[in-house]
Amino acid sequence: MSLPLPGNDQVMKKRIALVTGGYSGERDISLKSGKEVYRHLDRSIYEVFWIQIEEENWYYLSDAGKRHPVDRKDFTIHLGDRKLSFDCAFIVIHGTPGEDGKLQGYFDLLNLPYTSCNRTTSSVTFNKFFTNRIARALGVRTADALFFTALEEIDHREILKTLGLPCFVKPNNGGSSVGISRVDVPEDLHGAILKAFGEDREIVIEKFIPGFELTCGILRSRGQLIVLPLTKIISRKAFFDYEAKYTDGMAEEITPAPVDDELRSDCQELSGFLYHQLNCRGIVRFDYIVNGRDLYFLEVNTIPGFTQNSIVPKMATVMGLSLTRLYTMAIEEVLR
């Protein structure tokens, strides 16, 4: 990957730190998303710096492949005798520390604008159980669910009695369907719980809602909500798991979704309502299960995927919105 060094002709351009990597099970997807965003950012108005975050190292990757450490005291880099700061951070980290509020809180301390929800919204919505409880309190349908921590004794019989089968076992904090299992027979419940605890110290077990998955992408630009075309997801697996999301041919994502105008309007209106009520910012995607005429809220993705296989880029393309323009809108909204 070749990254530009700043030159005299670029003095007036805004410096964008494209922050990617992270240290969760979604790291590889974050890097793929980062490469796609990097490819489409408008070099006529921005200087783009690839900032990679690892558990022990934060660094800027130069055009020669050299790593320049990031000074974490003020999120700056040194190139020779020059100290460079940034005008905006474009966060493309799925999972921790980019989607769970940690980086947002750090950037808030530095007064550095960033292209995602704020630290409170990011932290709360990263927690699936909390988010679903908030949505339910707002009158939105959600699946019945149980919450457990790694310190608790888990009564399998009570779970089956309360939720029935099939059910889904999920890490409470995370995304990209990492660690999620669908359980169809009682004998598989224990293994699914262990798998989820392998990714997180908190898990959620949800009642199965029959239907199809529908997703809605939204961003705010110049104070107005921009709603992208809906996508209907048909997985070739038992559900829309990690393999189905990121493997060609494992899922059919139909954009615009072949649904009637009433359902489309309901989904867009509900997504706009949740975007406002959860105090979202930037490019966000809301996922639902459609059961009959009813929309059941699944989760909100405050930093959705931007890979070639990801849904939001496809939504924008179908809408006639270039990815360069989409990402420019996200940056402009936090800089204006």
Keywords:
7-stranded mixed beta sheet, 28% strand, Dna Ligase, domain 1, alpha+beta, D-amino Acid Aminotransferase, Chain A, domain 1, Rossmann fold, 3 domains, 10 helices, 336 residues, globular, single chain, 6-stranded antiparallel beta sheet, disordered N terminus
Characterization of this structure:
It is a single chain. The chain is α+β, with helices and mostly antiparallel strands. It folds into 3 domains: about 10-115, Rossmann fold; about 145-205, ATP-grasp fold, A domain (Dna Ligase, domain 1, 2-Layer Sandwich); about 210-335, 2-Layer Sandwich (D-amino Acid Aminotransferase, Chain A, domain 1). Helix content is about 30%, strand content about 30%. The chain has helices spanning about 25-40, 100-110, 120-125, 130-135, 155-165, 190-195, 240-245, 260-275, 310-320, 325-335; strands spanning about 15-20, 45-55, 60, 65-70, 75-80, 80-85, 90, 145-150, 165-170, 180-185, 200-205, 210-220, 225, 230-235, 250-255, 285-290, 295-300. A 7-stranded mixed β-sheet has the order 6-5-4-3-2-1-7. Strands 12, 13, 14, 15, 16 and 17 form a 6-stranded antiparallel β-sheet that branches. Helix 2 packs antiparallel against helix 3 (about 120-125). The longest helix has 17 residues, at about 260-275. The radius of gyration is 20 Å and the shape is globular. The model is unreliable at about 1-10 (pLDDT under 50).
Order of helices and strands: EHEEEEEEHHHEHEEHEEEEHEHEEHH
N-C termini distance:
30 Å
Widest β-sheet, arrangement of strands: 6-5-4-3-2-1-7
Report the biggest beta sheet as strand number plus sense, adding barrel if it closes: 7 strands, mixed
Number of strands: 17
Number of helical segments with 4 or more residues: 10
Instruction: Name the overall outline.
Output: globular
Helix fraction? 25-40%
At the fourth level of CATH, the homologous superfamily of the largest domain is ATP-grasp fold, B domain
In CATH, the architecture of the largest domain is 2-Layer Sandwich
Q: Briefly, what CATH class of the largest domain?
A: Alpha Beta
What's the number of structural domains?
A: 3
- Here the CATH topology of the largest domain equals D-amino Acid Aminotransferase, Chain A, domain 1
* Percentage beta strand: 25-35%
**Mean pLDDT reading:** 91
Segments where pLDDT lies below 50 for 5+ residues?
1-10
